[in-house]
Specification:
heterodimer, A: alpha+beta, 3-stranded mixed β-sheet, B: two-stranded antiparallel ribbon, 10 helices, about 65% helix, binds iron/sulfur cluster
Chain lengths: ~240, ~325
């Protein structure tokens, strides 16, 4: 069984919101109609988004760390938002595990948002239907887009490649490998929703350098300057070239 | 959560309507077993059913204001296998239909005995319709309450007390209403209803207080640490991913101060329980105060329901600390 998902690397995300804008751009221009906004160019702009980047400060000054946290529907393997929907508008696809809303069936009762612990769903205040991340279902199966573009918009836009996309049930996929090798984790595991999306933790990027590594091994006398030219007979540094 | 007035009116109005129906049928059963004098079919049971239907209809109409697409409301009946909301949508009209039939049967006095119980008690159509109505009435109470109680993330709601409270508060309101109705219509019944109303209101007071105590001691299962998966005791939100707010900042916060919440709690306890109880006691001698009791309690119930919604703290709020 396939379960498509995103893996988001918090160690790499710089909080530029490129994924937010490209998500909005793609999903507001699709066949499903716009993601409506109110006051987009005014004070207090507000609107419908599938994906938002939040920022948290961890720790106490001066020992703080800024964490940028992209947040969208996690396409839970056991999605609590689906069974509560009275109309069947919310559903999880068997073939690839994407959780979707049928905008033509949704009555806008908002019950599903109460049942999602992550606040991943937002109502479109003008169309009065529930909206959420579709994993760009209209991109990834597109037959007209070039092959390399058949990935979610946010993944393509991310300048630091903090977003990976793939099948988390395939142990050899890039996402499964990232989860396995970089300690990928799920959000709010206490609710048993089994989010398909995973996050990679912040990691300390340090390397250990020993003192002797800072000293040129071929300059034991620590004399700076050009090395004396070896004579033609002498073996050369790489044993191949000679002067 | 942000309390939606459509849902507050829906739950309180149908609660009163359901309670009134239960009260009417209880009265009929008492007279069936010769414990109370029989009432007039048309002017008491049928008129009472009309009153109950009026409450149920108003509640139903209020619920439509909650929907973004009321014209698609018929679709809500399709997912009864998994969704309590869908079940409520089915049971509410079924119950209303049964109250209608019950009222009709009384109006046209369909009292031909269908069969006899031992002790030569003749069972007629109204008794059977009333029993079916009672079943549907409890099914409706359970469906309505389970809409909230089944959401495990909303720990304030996820308790059997939610279901018990919906039943008892609806019952209390309905029996007070039945008392007020009989004070006008059949004064010899008002003492009976006021007595039952006192018992149900006291029970409701116990269970509602129990849920308040429980909710005051809830330990949230989720924390900032599990929400973003960073193991540090101090995490402060700096940006919420929106400038002018979002659906998430509007739907899940009631926007009132802690002081307001603190003041509202004793206020609704007084209005829903103490004032009606005092008036119900007074009604034993002066039944006309029952109408006042019902109105006061109904206002209190609106506050109680508002508090019920506002008190629930959704785990998604962890992502919106800036509110
Ligand atoms: S993140 Fe929320 S909306 Fe998305 S599948 Fe999980 S419960 Fe449903
Ligand atoms: S808002 Fe739409 S998708 Fe959500 S529960 Fe209601 S009908 Fe289903």
């Amino acid at each position: 069984m396939t379960q498509l998902a995103l893996v988001i690397d918090l160690n790499v995300c710089v909080g530029c919101s490129a994924c937010v804008t490209s998500c909005k751009e793609w999903n507001t221009s699709g066949a499903a109609g716009p993601l409506c906004d109110t006051n987009p160019y005014d004070a207090e702009p507000t609107g419908t988004f599938f994906n938002r980047v939040q920022t948290f400060e961890v720790g106490e000054y001066p020992k703080t760390e800024t964490v940028h946290f992209p947040k969208s529907c996690l396409h839970c393997e056991d999605p609590p938002c689906v069974p509560v929907c009275p109309t069947g508008a919310s559903y999880k696809r068997k073939e690839d595990g994407i959780v979707l809303v049928d905008y033509d069936k949704c009555i806008g009762c908002k019950y599903c948002t109460w049942a999602c612990p992550y606040g991943a769903r937002e109502i479109d205040e003008q169309q009065k239907v529930m909206k959420k991340c579709t994993l760009c279902v209209d991109r990834i199966y597109s037959t007209t887009l070039p092959e390399r573009d058949r990935r979610p918009s946010c993944v393509l836009a991310c300048p630091t490649s903090a977003r990976l996309f793939g099948d988390v049930h395939d142990p050899d996929s890039v996402v499964s490998r990232a989860i396995r090798e970089s300690g990928g984790y799920a959000l709010m595991p206490e609710w048993g929703t089994q989010p398909a999306n995973h996050y990679l933790p912040r990691r300390k990027s340090t390397i250990t350098i020993r003192e002797d590594q800072l000293v040129r091994a071929d300059n034991p006398l620590k004399v700076d300057g050009k090395l004396p030219k070896p004579s033609r007979q002498e073996p050369t540094l790489d044993d191949v070239t000679s002067w | 959560m942000k309390p939606a007035f459509s849902v507050i009116f829906l739950t309180t109005l149908i609660g009163a309507g359901q309670g009134l129906f239960l009260a009417l049928y209880t009265g009929q059963l008492y007279s069936f077993f010769d414990l109370l004098p029989a009432q007039d079919s048309r002017s008491f049971y049928a008129a009472g059913s009309i009153l109950a239907l009026a409450f149920l209809c108003t509640g139903l109409i209020a619920s439509f204001f909650h929907l973004g697409h009321p014209e698609r409301a018929w679709r809500t009946a399709t997912q009864w296998r998994t969704s309590w909301l869908s079940r409520e949508v089915i049971v509410l009209p079924a119950f209303m239909g049964m109250v209608f039939l019950y009222g009709t049967a009384h109006w046209f006095d369909w009292r031909t005995p269908l069969f006899e119980l031992p002790g030569s008690r003749a069972v007629d159509a109204t008794i059977i319709l009333g029993a079916l109505g009672t079943l549907l009435c409890f099914a409706l109470f359970v469906s309505t309450a389970m809409i909230y109680a089944c959401l495990r993330f909303l720990q304030e709601w996820h308790t059997p007390l939610t279901v018990i409270n919906y039943i008892l508060l609806g019952g209390s309101s309905g029996f007070v209403l039945a008392g007020a109705f009989s004070a006008v219509d059949a004064p010899q019944m008002s003492g009976f209803y006021a007595g039952w109303a006192i018992i149900i209101t006291l029970l409701a007071f116990i269970t509602r207080t129990a849920s308040l105590i429980r909710n005051a001691r809830i330990k949230p299962k989720s924390s900032m640490r599990t929400a973003i998966g960073i193991k540090h005791p101090r995490i402060v939100q700096k940006a919420q991913g929106a400038m002018g707010g979002s659906f998430n900042t509007r739907e899940f916060f009631h926007g009132k101060s802690l002081a307001f919440m603190r003041a509202l709690k004793p206020a609704f306890l007084v209005m829903v329980f103490f004032v009606p109880l005092a008036l119900l006691a007074a009604a034993m001698t002066a039944p006309s105060v029952l109408l006042v009791a019902f109105i006061m309690q109904y206002i209190g119930l609106l506050a109680e329901r508002w508090f019920f919604f506002a008190q629930a703290n959704h785990p998604q709020n962890l992502y919106y600390q800036g509110i």
